[in-house]
Amino acid sequence: MLEKALIGTKRYYLLLAVLGGIFALGFLFYLQQLKVGLGITGMGRDVSWGFYIAQFTYLVGVAASAVMVVLPYYLHNYKAFGRVTILGEFLAVAAVTMCVTFVLVDMGRPDRVFNVFKYPTPNSVMFWDIIVLNGYLLLNILIGWNVLECERHSVAPPKWIKFLSYVSIPWAVSIHTVTAFLYAGLPGRGYWLTAIMAPRFLSSAFAAGPSLLVLLCLLVRKYTKFDPGREQIQSLAKVVTYATLINVFFFFCEVFTVFYSQIPDHMLHFQYLFAGLQGKARLVPFMWFSIVGMTITAILLTNPKLRQNENTLAALCGMVIITTWIDKGLGLMTGGFVPNPMEKVTEYAPTVPEAFITLGVWALGFLVLTLLYKVAVSIKEEIRS
Amino acid sequence: MGMDRREFIRIAGLSTLLGLGGKGAFELLRPGQVEAAMAAKPEAQGVVRWAMVVNMQKLDEATAKKCIEACHRVHNVPDFKKPKDAKDTLPPEVLNRYEVKWLWTEHFHNAFPGEDHPNMLEKVAHLPFLLLCNHCDNPPCVRVCPTKATFRREDGIVNMDMHRCIGCRFCMAGCPFGARSFNWRDPRPYVADTFPGYPTREIGVVEKCTFCAERLAQNMLPACVEASGGALVFGDLNDEKSRVRDTLKRYFTIRRKVHLGTNPQVYYIV
Hints:
Chain A is mainly α. Chain A is built from 14 helices and no strands. The two termini of chain A are 17 Å apart.
């Protein structure tokens, strides 16, 4: 099937070239980072995780959201999603690829990455995160590829694939839960020390991931002969609606506990993000845009007319993607580290090399996505004709 | 029994996989047991528990500075403000971000956030509280480290293997005391005189105070204690006759962020 990725239109090659070019540019900056050290980023002793880990966290969510097409299809026999499960699974593959790459670029000593396997340490959440993420990557490659191959030859997928599909459902939940546990179990970080972290991660994942999938479905329909289907897109839109509403609800649950209890260790981080602290307020406009935008988007999504119009739906999905990214990327990472354990404020902003490396990893992810979608769509077109 | 090449490779491959999985399984069921069984048995002696008391009644700005200098000199801690070669001069905005510190001072409200109040003794509010790794009994940094590069020794010292550290910085997020530093760039051009008794570091690893484990091994006191002129007291908490126990008996002491349950082993006399 891989041959399908090798032949395409001029536009397809152009897209690959552009993505490859951005990836190469990011790679050049990464070489500089390898040589000089992570000091070329905006991170420092106070904000010791930044853009890379923020993207990683966000993309784990995107990957986990594949379950939102797999679950209805396999557990509820919702046949319509049969047509888009492959898009969800391949999106998950691309997203996890980006996650793993972001972790790798964030490491101070990537040459020692295998120490994680050489000295397995189950008391570290990172150990589990590596297991569940790589497992999820493998599951989605296996399932996606085999189901597609069977579809091509008009045979039913083997039983073990069906078994793996069932396994992938709780596994998807696990990747984002474990990722939340990276943060939610640290004693000195009030912003992260909350039992609702994993639920919040899942709700924002199931809002952002299917939003991206809606946009990808619309693109696939526009530029190929394969139509993922109107009903499928509308069902995804409902998932986005509920998940965004729940995500906004969870945010306000958090705000209530933090501000009604009035515990400073927890309040200070919110104050930094939404009002500024000690005269420093770099993220304030972003955070307000994020939460106000997300709330309005959630309310608008409940209007069936706006959902059914694919133009407004696309715009709303775009808003969900941006606002959850600010909340879970920018805000979550910096907010957790500011103020620092001495209650001092050091602000964070990514540097130019850091931004290009980040862009490079995204380009790599979309390169993988383009290749996989090309295979999937070509097979679907082949079956149709 | 004859075995063809194919069969041999199959068995070798399988046993490699099992071997890896086997150790992982052991680590799951009995964490640390495999490593412990492989390591040499500890010497037969009374269990030592190192601890430090910082007597703020005796510690002034100048003494604190002397302690920090002594510590940073014998551990080759870089000073990014002072490159050996002018070509390595760094822009001022990165100095704070890159800073590596094993021992440093903070005002009371930063060292003990939330414990200060507007009417507190003014003298105390402006004292240079000497901060370092607390060598917690229940250290979150050890809990989160994915490679056991940070580990807790029998004698309570939370130490680091900087050759094993992968630079993931999970420990920096885990430490509630800001005691950990990362090598954001090559520190060597910023170490004025390399001290031969302790290794310099490469880029990309985390480091922190070790309670001078390398000096204790030679029956020497930690460098800061030696330089403190009696303001710092160090000793074995399990030895009733030790200076540290005696000091704790005679003075009321406080510790940083005890409510977090890490059980810090650096005590402060205010």
